[in-house]
Amino acid sequence: MKQLTRRRALKTLFCSSAAMALNLKPRSALAEASRSGLNFLAIGDFGSGAQDQKNVAKAMQDYAAKSALKPDALFFIGDNFYGPANPLPKVKGKTVKGEAAAFTPESKRWRTDIEEMYPTSAFPCPQYAVLGNHDYHDNQGGEKTQLAYAKQPGIRWQMPNKWYRQDLGGLITLLFVDTNLPDVSGHMMRASLTLEEEKAQLTWLKAELNKPRAPFTLVVGHHPLYSNGDHGDTKPLIDQWDSLFQEQKIHAYLCGHDHDLQHLELEGKFTSHILSGGGGAKTRKLDHPERTMPYGKDVHGFTHITVQPDALTFAHHGVDGSLLHQFTKRVDGKVEIKA
Of 59, 60, 145, 249, which sits most exposed with the smallest number of CB within 10 A? Predict the structure, then answer.
């Protein structure tokens, strides 16, 4: 009897440890998530502070209200801020001479371009963010400021590290990565990950993929591996990650960088590639039509991601909220185009 009790206790401890490793919610919340699913809204290349960003943000709010949707998270896919975060003022259309104020966690654009642009009233949920090339280049130390902002209590902005993991609802494992490798974003001595950071992230990524994961795995980064857009493919990322994604059966890779909306399926590859770069910066034509794809268009918009126990669905929406493209990915990798 004692042996049976001990065995049962060890089994319970093992199951509890596995749940903790996956950061699962309590059983009641897990059951609820399994029934109703999870919902995320994603945008990349959005931090212009200009009218186009405001239009997309308003479209997201209107869509959420019309759909009675309370997202479980927002995904900010990099280029969260363009230009100096504290630009110099203008008088009669001319910029006043001087040096722009440093970008800090107290800078005004955190309030105007993040907190108020995507208000808590519409999106009372975490904002999971990754770094884009402009987050490194447009403000000296800008990447450090974004990491520091995340450390403040009571805010939605989540960036505990340059790369990090979240497991939600027992349904999906999310791996947020920094694509600013020296050979990608740091050419010509521009700011990027250091070589040591690049190596550390790759070691971390391989380790996380070898741990227990939820039924679906989604990797989120800024630069695309494959793209028919303005920048085209990113060879250093293909060289470093593509075979790993296929080997570990990553269901989808979500990114931006090219200012458009895309969905690519590559012959013989398990991973779907989704670009959501229409969040507010000026759109660019798809200048590299190197392969056929289910969808690609140079428009502003956002992406709605739905996770069910047996289905991972991506839907691109325009600034009027209209559905532009939708597909579902099954656990076994099967893709079903819905629209």
Answer: 249
pTM > 0.85: yes
* Section 150-160 average pLDDT: 97
Residues 6+ apart with CB under 8 A from 234: 179, 184, 223, 224, 225, 227, 257
DSSP state of 26: P
Q: 85: domain range?
A: 28-89+97-337
Q: Print burial letters for 306-318: b (CB count within 10 Å at least 16), e (below 16).
A: bbbeebbbbbbbb
Q: pLDDT band at 37, cuts 50/70/90?
A: very high
CATH classification of the domain holding 85:
3.60.21.10
For residue 266, count other CB atoms closer than 10 A to its CB: 15
* Coil, strand or helix at 237: helix
The answer, yes or no, to whether residue 30 has pLDDT greater than 70, is: no
Question: Under DSSP, is residue 94 helix (H, G, I), strand (E, B) or coil?
Answer: strand
pLDDT (tens digit per residue) in 205-243: 999 999 999 999 999 999 999 999 999 999 999 999 999
331 close to 216: Cβ distance less than 8 angstroms: yes
Q: Environment class of residue 28 by beta-carbon count within 10 Å: exposed (0-12), middle (13-18) or buried (19+)?
A: exposed
Q: Say what the pLDDT of residue 97 is.
A: 58
> Rounded to whole angstroms, how far apart are CA atoms 173 and 175?
7
- Does residue 158 belong to any structural domain of this protein? yes
